Structures are given as structure tokens and as C-alpha cells.
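Q: How would the C-alpha cells look for this protein?
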Amino acid sequence: MSKFFKPFAALAATALLLAGCSNGNEAPSNGAEEQAPDTEQAQELTVFAAASLNAAFSDISSEVFEPENPGVSVKFSFEGSSTLVDQITNGAPADVFASADQRNM
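A: Here is the predicted structure in C-alpha cell form.
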């Protein structure tokens, strides 16, 4: 494994986690500040990732992502890439998919 793989995997994981929480729609501003509701609705991000990414994704989630995104919990499913592809193909809900092999990307 190349010495550049782990930092790249960590960077890719962070980008995928952040992208998974974005809905891509920004509400237009009318100049007035909106007040947040008293209780925020908790959100869950479902991440399907190759088993080899378990340590990297878990660390990124607990040390970086969740502290910066309160109210968002991350639910992981770590399996072989081809198993995860089969699950997604059969309708399993996943917000983020991270494969360890190029064939399943």
C-alpha cells in the first residue's frame, strides 16, 4: 500500500461525509434573520464503506465530522465492496458509498 493512500483515503472520507449531509439547496435570504427552532431534528447519515476503511472512517467521524456537525449521527456499514454494491442495488439506503476497489466505484 502506498504511503499516499491513507491520507488520500482520509481526505476522500471527509469529503464524502460532508457531501452526504448537504442537500444542495440553499434557501434564498430575504434579509431577515431566521430563528432556529427550539428543538433540532436529529439527522442520520448512512455510510456504506469497505471494511478496510473502518478505522479511518470511524476516526474521521468521531474526531472531525460529528463535533463539527451537531445533530448529525453517522451510521456505518462496513463490508466488502462487492457486498455493499449488492445491498445498494437491492435497495439498501446509503447516503455515502466508499469502495476499496476500482471495479465497484
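The mean pLDDT is 78.

The first strand starts at residue 43 and ends at 50.

Upvote if useful.
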